[in-house]
Amino acid sequence: MTRHLLRDDDLSPAEQSAILDRAARMKVDRFGERPLAGPQTVAVIFDKSSTRTRVSFAVGIADLGGVPLVISTASSQLGGKETASDTARVLERQVAAIAWRTYAQSGLEEMAAGTTVPVVNALSDDFHPCQLLADLLTIREHKGELAGLRVAFVGDGGDNMVHSYLLACATAGIHLRVAHPVAYGPRRAIVDDAIRIAAQTGGSITLLSDPAEAVDGVDVVVTDTWVSMGREDQKAERLAAFSGYQVTRELMALAAGDAIFLHCLPADRGFEVEAAVIDGPQSVIWDEAENRLHAQKALLAWLLEQD
Ligand code: CP
Ligand code: NVA
Questions:
Q1: Interface ipTM
Q2: Annotated binding site
Q3: What are the Aspartate/ornithine carbamoyltransferase carbamoyl-P binding domain coordinates in residue numbering (predicted)?
Q4: Alpha carbon distance 194, 63 (integer Å)
């Protein structure tokens, strides 16, 4: 049965943990596994802009002995003249896997349903599961065992990053607090899924409106842009709604003394985070960005073994 990663809870706790272990090994021995030797090709498709995802998939596929085929949707037939499922039927005869950065989650579901090769969500409007594998790898490197850690996400609670934090942290047994303006909260069905998973792993989910309450004593503080790709027309109202949610030095001082700060990047310094925090000693954003490479290599290697 072909496995896909469309959302974070497509991985069980044991599978998530095994991929993180493998990513850590691959980071130490970067060229030690070559499951794409042949070489086989992996298609990486972008409907939206990208730096980290584009580079880390291209480099990672090459590290694994394969060839990356990076496609800009605007220059392909996908989305214009051709459906996701027809595109997948064409690609599966020639590539080992497909990664796709797109808008609607339903497009990824359609692609995955119509193909025999693994499909990876390289960011959708709803989830960013590759980023969460990198974030959890980074947190593990700095804090050790994930289960039982306290993590606070502050800011846009209604977007892909927070939805992925909900599901991935629940899977890892983490205690996650999310502080968001009332009008920008996570989708209820995703919160319910996260609560159900957390009940099995020993984690927990707490939704709050007060950033100070959310970061009190936590091990990890996370934020993301207030204006995600595709929401640029809402910029003015979003900057107003999120003005009390900036991660400042004062806010970080409420977390544990050795707390770390994460941001998936790209960042808007002076909006969701103060420059002194993201560029300060508690920030681990460059480790986090590098870990996209190792986490996705482990994910691809694992997916290719599943069918
Ligand atoms: N964090 C992340 O996905 O970055 P890019 O948009 O540059 O790929
Ligand atoms: N939430 C952001 C993440 C960017 C990597 C966006 O979707 O634009």
A1: 0.99
A2: 50-53, 77, 101, 128-131, 160, 224, 228-229, 264-265, 292
A3: 3-141
A4: 34
